[in-house]
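Example 349.
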Amino acid sequence: MKNIFEFSREKLEEDLLSKGISKYRSQQIFDWIYKKNVLDVEKMQNISKIDIEIIKNEYSFEKMKVVDVKESSDRTKKFLFELNDGNYIETVLMNFSYGKSICISTQVGCDMGCSFCASGKDKKVRDLTVAEMVLQVVQVKDSLVEGENLTNIVIMGIGEPFDNYINLIDFIKIVNDNKGINIGARHITVSTCGLVPQILEFANLPLQVNLAISLHFANDEKRSKYMKINKAYNLEKLFNALEIYYNKTNRRITFEYLLIKEVNDSLTDAKQLVSLIKGLNAYVNLIPYNDTQMFSRSPKEAQNRFYDYLMKNRINVTLRREQGLDISAACGQLRIKKMRDDYGKRVDN
Ligand code: SAH
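Predicted structure in complex with S-adenosyl-L-homocysteine:
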């Protein structure tokens, strides 16, 4: 049986047409699911009995199991989902003045192996399906109450989105569809550690989705030491790809820079970052590192020194306000905790 959440509107129309269901009818179904959040086909009032039977026989509407929801003091919510095959993924819902933003996972585990990141402690088990990504949005949205609005999607949870590229693009098309969930492309951000071929492909996407690069280091020696991806695509290759991306899309690039104590937070690091990105239409998001057993967060003074140096050099920069610290909201931390509780599995975080 096919999972209904795998289908973009166009693909659903095509699939249903092959079963004798009109395009108009598939648009109504898409509307029930994504605009009205009605996930039970029997409750789709304007659909005929015959069509309901066909749909019930052909498609599964199965949701993911919610195993845990934790809410922090700042009302950040973290959802732990169990997948059909017993794997776990997590999704974070954050509050901002402009609305709510959801942080989506794209894989079970991650193969990128960044040494400071909790997600990569365990190798990738598998890619998430389109349905599993879409359901994170649908189910979290379903938990919102009257007056609460989901306005943004960041694809920065567990996994490397560009290592699951085809499903990622289908996911974006579904959540962006103005006849469905309708999150504007400019309100969707994909974050990558720097997979060059996919950055180049992403540049050709006819959608204005934001691109964020997990940079974290501004020289090759350090970046290669902590981020395996830099050995395949070093800073020169990455920045050449970003130049092509920028020339094609004209879209400002966001650089994420974790501040890790005595690892990448010195004045020299800040200077190298400035010379790397000076002149680019870029924006730097400084993120105080969430402590793990291996690394710790830069002290406030080091954070401020770094921030001030960038400001003084006219770099667009923000120091991210932190969310959900008390519910282990950093990448992969809740999933790892759950696995540890379940299997007594020893992981280093
Ligand atoms: N693979 C993608 C997206 C997932 S990681 C990427 O690398 O961009 C999302 C972000 O969280 C990355 O910038 C990652 O480096 C960062 N991160 C990893 N461990 C963290 C920690 N302990 N505290 C804060 N951010 C962390």
